[in-house]
Amino acid sequence: MNENFIQINGISKHFGNVKAVDDVSFSIKEGEFFSLLGPSGCGKTTLLRLLAGFEYPTNGNLLIDGSDITALPPDKRPTNMVFQNYAIFPHINVEQNIKFGLRKLGLTDDEIKKRVDDVLALVKLEGYEERFSGQLSGGQRQRVALARALVRQPKVLLLDEPLGALDKKLRDEMQLELRTLQKEIGITFVFVTHDQQEAISMSDRVAVMSEGKIQQLSAPNELYKNPENIFVSDFIGETNFLKASTRSKDGDHINVAIEDLGDFKVKNNLNIPENSSDVVCSVRPESMMISRDKSDWDICLEAKINQTSYLGEMTRFYVEVSGINKVITVSSQHFDNQSFENNTCFISISLEDISLLQKK
Amino acid sequence: MFQAWRNIYSKSDNAKAYSLLSPALFLIILVMLIPMALMLSFSSFTQVSMMEIDFTPTIQRYIDFFEKSLLVSLLIKSVKISFIVTLITLLTAYPVCYYIAFYVKKNKMLWLVLLTLPFWTSYLLRVFSWKIILGTKGVFNSTLLGAGIISEPLTFLMYSEEAVIITLTHAWAAFALLPLYVSLEKIDFSYIEAARDLGLSKFEVFWKVTFPLSLPGVIGAILIIFIPTVGDYVTPALIGGTEGRMLSNMIQAYFGKINNIPLGAASATIMLTTVILITVIVSYTTKRLTQRLS
Q: Cβ A83–B196 below 8 Å, yes or no?
């Protein structure tokens, strides 16, 4: 397995004064399901278009499987793309759409037929050959777009928010299906999305982008458990930020004073310096415990429930801790809004679940 | 009674459609169907003398038309001139529209307005201005004479088929620009990117994707230029001279100077039929062409 299958070396893309992609370098492994995740305007789509050849970088170079593709036009690259709006040619039918990219590969008629049949079976679209784009549902169009790109057997498949136009249920199905498909055919996928849940659930690795830079590149669980900065912590899942300042280090731990709560010793994975006031503590809503009675956890606070929202699999509580002028979000699978008398409760935090982050 | 009408009205989309269309329908019947019916019936009469028309139905006028080689050759010439005008207009307007649709990023509207600006003046004025440009003492000739490039004014510029073609091409260009622009502008750029992504060169992308997708506009432009130019008589009358005369000028003469209204009506009917036939053929073949291309 090639660790550096796609190499992105110091890539920048400027549009006038806007730095859409700002000096980005990383590698994508062969056969990996890789996601570029970020809010709109973070540069993720530009990066994908640079890989596809629709844009050329201002600086830096791109390599796929060892060969430099920086200056190659899209038709000469070993990549194919699934477009956000699918871009199924409306004037030709499904079969012709899928064959469209095969004419330049110099295949025999038998080979073409076999490839088309195989890919139609792969995306479960047998029997739809004669249909036109206008006669297909969103999900079917997405499959055609996928088939049209895969039938060329590219080294890398680029996907530009392909699930964005589908409704929730179909999207969940397609997420699973895409993931299975990718494992089955083993092609490297580069997937662009703004949906953190989508990225986390499908990818082997995720690069979180913001303002043209990579904020963090790691496996989904790392991203969630050990965010490297405030942006990632805030963007991936939900969290509570508490103001804090660091005191003295103690091995791989550090003493912090959390505003209004007191002094605690927490782990210091990011090696944040001593005596810094530019830090926050991040605590996930589901890592806290809400209870009727006081607990013996590291931190236990009496609180008042301001609001609740019932989500089915869990209930989210917005609580106000006595002495802290801040609403904290806690989620629980065991309690709902009926469980508490007079809206009073206790919330407990384990020090293990506090991530210390540095402000920018 | 009123309630019954209301029920019909609210339930039937057809009733709604027709009531909304009725003013236009009325106008079309008044100014198109009735005159056409009149023309058809007149083409079956016979002009006996200056003031007298024999109303016995006959198809002799149509036979007359095809027996007069002048009329047939004028019909062919009209179609030929229109065909050349349409072709030149398409070949010049298409690249311009392509450029505006895909390469102009800001102020597309300004470009279109500027391009169509000359067409906001009267058609007659524009034809006359070509007379000034192409005439023996016109802008073109005096410039060439003054520069010493020619010693005699170029006479073929004026009162000729070429003059009619030049003038008609310019006069109708704006009508081609708009449908072409709209059909190109509507093409989602991701289709073009997708085709490039699927391995086609820029040239192939144009023939396999861009051009087929712009065909509605091309057909629109063809028809919108071809139909009126076949029947145009102002330009040939003012600029064409005897050389550039078209069938429409003869038809006008039959209704006027020559005073043979039935033959004029028959000629007009034949011309109308020809145009309809060509329209059908153009629409059909372009549709087939699209399928062949892709």
A: no
